[in-house]
Description:
Blueprint: H1 2-17, E1 26-31, E2 36-42, E3 47-53, H2 63-80, E4 87-89, H3 98-108
Amino acid sequence: xxxxxxxxxxxxxxxxxxTGTAERPRLSVFISGRHISAQIIDDTTAKTLAAATTVxxxxxxxxxxxxAHIGKEIAGKAQKVKIKTVVFDRNGRKxxxxxxALADAARKGGLEF
Length: 113
């Protein structure tokens, strides 16, 4: 129970400081045991501008490889809707491992954060 509570507290602490605007939307990342999802969200209008997920895709490799693939995919979709800079929302997770792989791949794909 404490593990869930601590993650919720970390998530709320990050979200209190990180908000997405029309000029600089929020890149929110969710990582479960099997899948990885990333969304680019404009919080002023509460709209998702671009999204990428491993659900329904036949990706092979480790979760770190899947995270890097989603990072590239979300960067490509962001360029299609003319988004260059985002605010990174790590969703209460430590910036390590899979999250780092996704962020590095998104940076290589052209996103700035």
